[in-house]
Amino acid sequence: MIGAITAGLFSTGTTPSTNSYESIATVTVGAGGSSAINFTSIPSTFKHLQIRFICRGTGGSGGAPYYIQVGNGSADTAANYSNHQLFGDGSTTTASANSGSTANCIIQNWGGFMTYTNTDVPSSFGAAIVDILDYANTSKYKTARALEGREGNGGSPAGRVGLESGSWRSTSAIDTIKITTDATYGVNFAQYSQFALYGIKG
Amino acid sequence: MAAGSTYTPIATYTIPSATASYTFTSIPSTYTDLVLVANGATAAASNINVRVGNGSVDTATNYSYTVLNGNGSSATSIRYSNQGQYQVSNEDAYWDTTVSGLIIVNFQNYANTSTYKTMLSRANKASLGVSASVGLWRSTSAINTIFFGGSSQNLAAGTTLTLYGIAAA
């Protein structure tokens, strides 16, 4: 979407139209924390979706991942996804992938742990921008991509920046998005985490 | 369900002649995120610095960032802590005179006063490489000032800077 605006701006010298990007819903986590963020009944009237968020985990240390599942009517928890990640942690780069039985999320950075948790770098939140393309199309599988990172000024765990892509092998329109963190370690999303869903018209 | 249009241009500036930097000031706090799109060049090879602040540009060492680079033959990652700037075009995607660079910086939840500010950036330089980075400004102050400048060289005439605001429902 940014690319489209940029192309319009710099190739024609005209101000881009900005009425095609709309806020759909926002969730801000309160003092009690939250185990899951659910966007439901997402209208099919847009071409693409974008989720922009900051988040942090409760409990534990060493960072935490977040997972994004999609679905029609409910989030698909089956192994109908595949995804790839490219991470940098300030000293090394890592590429990973999930498919088959280990892939039950369209965005699945368990190898990256892209946010901080309770005892990690204070006041620092992970951030991400996730695009889900052609989400309402009923003729093809769905594709997503993410730019994400956490940064802690050299604290532990180390800062990390990543790029991800993911696929949901379904031709159903997406009307549900579920974002969770790692309940295995008793981690929920912490206060001030905020998730904003936007729709981009075609 | 949808709350209406957002992604609003706040300000656009074209560098009229070679100059060290440009600063957006008095940025309203009415948006959720800010996006800065920069397309341009520098007088010679130079990284690009971003600084932020509240009321004025913070030049103290309150920034840190982690970068992922690719230059066509290798991928690398590097971190800078306790810096006086967030270098958004670094290592393999710095700017120079020949081919325009493109940088997009996202300032997430820039107006909240409860968290440090996290920034996500992508820098693209077709002749050199690409990078993705995450930056942190260790302040809970709202951002209302953004500085954009070359680290060692002037921004070239014709460089364009556009600041957008995105408002969540």
From the 3D coordinates, which CATH architecture of chain B would you assign? Sandwich
Strand order of the largest sheet of chain A: 1-12-3-8-9-10-5-6
Which structural category do the helix and sheet elements of chain A fall into? Answer: mainly beta
Q: Can you identify the CATH class of chain B?
A: Mainly Beta
The topology string of helices and strands of chain A comes to HEEEEEEEEEEEE
Total individual domains of chain B: 1
Tell me briefly what this model is.
The complex is a heterodimer of chains A (202) and B (169). Chain A has 202 residues and is mostly beta strands. Helix content of chain A is 5%, strand content 40%.
What does this 3D model show about the protein?
With 202 residues, chain A is mainly beta. Chain A has a single domain, classed as Sandwich (Jelly Rolls), CATH 2.60.120. Chain A has one helix spanning 2-12; strands at 21-28, 36-39, 48-55, 66-71, 81-88, 93-98, 107-108, 126-133, 142-150, 160-168, 176-181, 194-200. In chain A, strands 1-12-3-8-9-10-5-6 form an 8-stranded antiparallel sheet, with no helix packed on it. With 169 residues, chain B is an all-beta fold. Chain B has an 8-stranded antiparallel sheet with strand order 1-12-3-8-9-10-5-6, with no helix packed on it. In chain B, strands 2-11-4-7 form a 4-stranded antiparallel sheet, with no helix packed on it. The radius of gyration of chain B is 15 Å and the shape is globular. The termini of chain B are close together. At the A-B interface, helix 1, strand 1, strand 3, strand 5 and strand 8 of A face strand 1, strand 3, strand 5, strand 6 and strand 8 of B.
